[in-house]
């Protein structure tokens, strides 16, 4: 898919010179429609039970509201977010840092197949491309192109915080779930709230009300 395709997500054009030149897509969901009403849910790969529960709860509510859930198919919060969306009839979009023909992480192969049946698996990298640190960081800007980004759990230095920065640069709605002050997995997301850079949401209805403002 290229920018001239009618199903190209217009939200990606806000990236300007860093917008992708093409996308490889596997799945059933119309991509433009999915991105135009989307919430990115991101967080720690080493998620706590609290983080996984919150991600699932928020993703299910987002899906039930008729919105799409965008995430990166990583372990932890990403996986819980996709699984929560799959509990509804809404689309969920997995943005990969490798080719769409590569299941990464391997343990999520079945999940990625399920996402294709109800949403789409997307990458800006050609078939056969393997993941790398640079590609993980680059794909964050695509995730952050969603209309809103919710950080569930994030360490101070993490890919999720990078996604949050991208969302702010794009002037998207940015929200975070408050976490235990004793948990290093919530230090970054809590810092977003203390610094006034993100809206605090304690319930899915809080998040949905931000999208209606």
Describe this structure in words.
- The protein is α/β, with parallel strands linked by helices and 213 residues long.
- 38% of the residues lie in helices and 15% in strands.
- Helix 7 links the parallel strand 7 and strand 8.
- Helix 2 packs parallel to helix 3 and helix 3 packs across helix 4 (109-118).
- The chain is globular, with a radius of gyration of 15 Å.
- The model has no long low-confidence stretch (mean pLDDT 97).
List the helices and strands and how they pair.
Elements: E1 24-27, H1 31-36, E2 38-42, H2 49-64, E3 68-71, H3 77-86, E4 92-95, H4 109-118, E5 120-123, H5 133-143, E6 148-151, H6 159-169, E7 173-176, H7 187-194, E8 199-200, H8 204-212
Parallel strand pairs: 2-3, 2-6, 3-4, 4-5, 6-7, 7-8
Antiparallel strand pairs: 1-5
Helix pairs in contact: 2-3, 2-8, 3-4, 5-6
The dominant shape is globular
The residue fraction in helices comes out at: 25-40%
Overall mean pLDDT: 97
List how many beta strands DSSP finds: 8
Low-confidence stretches: none
- SSE order, one letter for each helix or strand: EHEHEHEHEHEHEHEH
Largest sheet: 8 strands, mixed
User: In oligomeric terms, what are we looking at?
Assistant: single chain
> What's the Cα radius of gyration?
15 Å
Helix segment count? Answer: 8
Report strand %: 5-15%
Helical/strand content category: alpha/beta
Strand order of the largest sheet: 1-5-4-3-2-6-7-8
Question: Span between N and C termini?
Answer: 32 Å
């Amino acid at each position: 898919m290229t920018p001239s395709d009618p199903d190209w997500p217009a939200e990606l054009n806000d990236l300007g010179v860093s917008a992708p030149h093409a996308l490889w897509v596997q799945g059933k969901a119309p991509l433009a429609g999915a991105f135009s009403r989307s919430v990115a849910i991101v967080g720690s790969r080493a998620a706590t039970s609290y983080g996984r529960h919150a991600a699932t709860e928020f993703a299910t509510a987002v899906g039930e509201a008729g919105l799409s859930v965008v995430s990166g198919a990583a372990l932890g919060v990403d996986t819980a977010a996709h699984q929560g969306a799959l509990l509804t009839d809404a689309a969920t979009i997995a943005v990969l840092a490798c080719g769409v023909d590569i299941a990464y992480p391997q343990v999520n192969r079945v999940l990625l197949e399920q996402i294709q049946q109800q949403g789409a698996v997307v990458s800006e990298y050609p078939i056969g491309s393997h993941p790398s640190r640079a590609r993980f960081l680059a794909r964050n800007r695509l995730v952050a192109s969603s209309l809103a980004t919710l950080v569930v759990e994030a360490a101070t230095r993490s890919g999720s915080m990078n996604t949050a920065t991208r969302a702010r640069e794009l002037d998207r709605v940015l929200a975070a779930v408050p976490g235990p002050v004793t948990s290093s997995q919530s230090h970054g997301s809590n810092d977003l709230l203390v610094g006034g850079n993100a809206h605090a949401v304690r319930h899915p209805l809080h998040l949905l009300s931000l999208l209606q403002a």
